[in-house]
Amino acid sequence: MADFSAWIGRSRAETESIDARLVRWLAATLERPDWMDAQAGQTLPAGWHWMLFAPVAAQSGLGRDGHPARTGDFLPPTTQPRRMWAGSRLVWHQPFRVGDQVTRTTTIRKAEEKAGRSGSMVFVTLAHRLEAGGRLIADEEQDLVYRGDAAPEEVAALARLAERARSGEATPEKTGRFHQAVTPDPVMLFRYSAATFNGHRIHYDRDYASTVEGYPGLVVHGPLIASLLLGFAETVVAPGATLTQFDFRAKRPTFDITPFALHADAPDASGEFALWSTNNVGEVAVEARARIRL
User: Fold this and answer.
1) What residue spans of 99-235 are helical by DSSP H?
2) CA 68, CA 57: separation in Å to the nearest integer?
3) Is the pLDDT of residue 116 over 80?
4) DSSP class per residue in 32-82
5) Which of 137, 138, 180 is nearest to 277 (CA)?
6) How many C-beta atoms surround the C-beta of residue 268 within 10 A?
7) What is the full DSSP assignment across 145-164?
8) Does the pLDDT at position 227 exceed 90?
């Protein structure tokens, strides 16, 4: 197992602006017509700050998957070829606003390699502190997982999942009080990738996704599903409420081959509630928990 202890505690700061044009792009992609004419000063919907701070590298500096090659300049130089945003834990202290100049200070909190049934994996946890105009806006912990190539057993299991999905076998593992179907397609996934400057080929390059990584379709982004769950919370579960906390964890992939669904329970007396998505065959794919200000 590689020793990444020297990377723990590394920190860097970046500053970017919440551009109204990017907000409109996200609004179009996420079916939020109320944000199609975003103007400076408006409060940003929850989770839309993920459009900021994408890693930027020249074409010559990209790895096979479309992400910047991992050279160890900040993140550990992992060798596992597959990368996954496995989840986040968010606390909002104040809202982001369109036009804000946001500074994100990132510290590597954890970096370790572990042996699993499918080979070695590297787990990296990043702590983000987001500020604008001298105000603390949000704190976020982000989990990244690096994995080896898919084993034949994993590819075969995903192929069976695709067969079940295409045959219409999609009974939800559990159904929330609120639920809503989502029909992903390549254009939706490409536009979300473009708005967030995400070059990961599993989201738009079907040939790469299938022949190199063994997936039965394009992979729906974890943060895209999380953003849809947040929008579901803001517009359906608790319209007009302010979200103060949100945690999500990706359990299984979801593909563009058939619709998937968003689910949520009603908020309890403290303002907390569970949200989740079910994948193409109805299995829980993303688990989340949110809190609103009462």
Assistant:
1) 152-166, 186-195, 206-211, 222-232
2) 6
3) no
4) -GGGTT--TTPBPPTTGGGGS------GGGB-TTSSBP--SSSS-----SE
5) 180
6) 10
7) EEE-PPPHHHHHHHHHHHHH
8) yes
Grouping H, G, I as helix, E, B as strand and the rest as coil, residue 179 is strand
Q: Computed over its alpha carbons, how large is the radius of gyration of the chain? A: 19
Residues 125-141, mean pLDDT to the nearest whole number: 97
Q: H/E element holding 11?
A: strand 11-17
Q: pLDDT class for 71, splitting at 50, 70, 90?
A: confident
Q: Which DSSP letter does residue 23 get?
A: H
Q: What is the 3-state secondary structure (H, E, C) of 240-260?
A: CCEEEEEEEEECCCCECCCCE
Mean pLDDT over all residues of the chain?
95
| Burial class (CB within 10 angstroms; exposed 0-12, middle 13-18, buried 19+) of 270 | exposed
Structure-token pair, residue 109? 């909190």
First and final CA of the chain: distance in angstroms?
47
Locus of tokens 């400076």: 40
